[in-house]
Design goal:
Length: 270
């Protein structure tokens, strides 16, 4: 499990982890490289390929443990990380499940269609490709959120984002910082869940937010990604926009956690 854009463990992700643990699951919850409690040379830099490789490394680590069945591992992500698990979930073999909570699937569909050749290119980039950024593909450093989009524009623009990040990121020991550099490397094929969806083999739960405020959570694109998944899948739309299920305790959080627990205990046979 890893949180979304710059968010850290203590910003409600740990509450989801606790719900899964109470239901009988072991949980590895970590901060992405460069953020929170994790190390990294490029502090406060977000790169989807680098974070995807982090999921791969986490799964590899878990599979080395004698007390964990290597074929009974699911991956979970929220927001930007939910998009990442829909990509990396197709690239890591033998996963038991995927939970994509409020996935950032994009404003529009990519200009290319899914195919075996495109997937092979994605896999090669993921495994060993150059994922460094360029000046043209690097944005920041800039605020994660801001109340003044004219004087101090931020990566995440809706006021709902500002409210949530300031409330939860501003808490003691959150280790969250309101600054980020975003890197989208100029790879041969884009990092897109639409291109990997047909190659996902693990059961997948996609949970979207009704009236999501984030422009990169276009419901038409989310639906198109879901429709491309051929593995067993569930689609669940929840009230509260993008951030409603990230307020804990709350009825929306309880509903989201219960639905995810039901999905995960189902695939694990708990």
């Amino acid at each position: 499990m890893a949180h979304g854009t710059t968010a850290t463990i203590s910003m409600v992700a740990e509450d989801y982890a606790a719900a899964f643990h109470r239901a009988g699951m072991s949980v590895l919850l970590y901060d992405h490289i460069n953020f929170g409690s994790s190390g990294g040379l490029m502090r406060q830099e977000i790169n989807p390929w680098v974070q995807a490789r982090g999921y791969r490394d986490a799964v590899t680590f878990i599979r080395q443990r004698s007390d964990i069945a290597p074929d009974r591992i699911a991956i979970w992500g929220d927001s930007f990380s939910a998009m990442e698990v829909l990509v990396v979930g197709a690239l890591i073999e033998g996963l038991a499940g995927i939970v994509a909570q409020i996935p950032v699937c994009g404003i529009d569909l990519p200009k290319i269609n899914p195919s075996a050749d495109v997937f092979d290119l994605l896999k090669n980039v993921f495994e060993s490709g150059d994922v460094s950024g360029t000046t043209e593909t690097t944005e920041g450093p800039m605020p994660v959120v801001s109340f003044d989009q004219v004087g101090s524009p931020s990566i995440l623009k809706p006021i709902q984002a500002f409210k949530w990040f300031i409330e939860y990121g501003g808490r003691h020991d959150s280790e969250w910082l309101n600054t980020v550099t975003r890197v989208m490397p100029p790879t041969e094929v884009p990092f897109s869940p639409y291109l990997t969806a047909p190659f996902i083999t693990a059961p997948t739960l996609m949970m979207t937010g009704r009236n999501d405020e984030m422009v990169h959570c276009n419901p038409a694109v989310q639906q198109a990604v879901f429709d491309k998944i051929v593995a067993p899948k569930e689609f669940f739309e929840i009230q509260g926009g993008h951030f409603g299920l990230l307020y804990s305790p709350s009825k929306i959080f309880d509903e989201a956690a219960a639905r995810q627990v039901k999905f995960l205990t189902g695939i694990f046979g708990i």
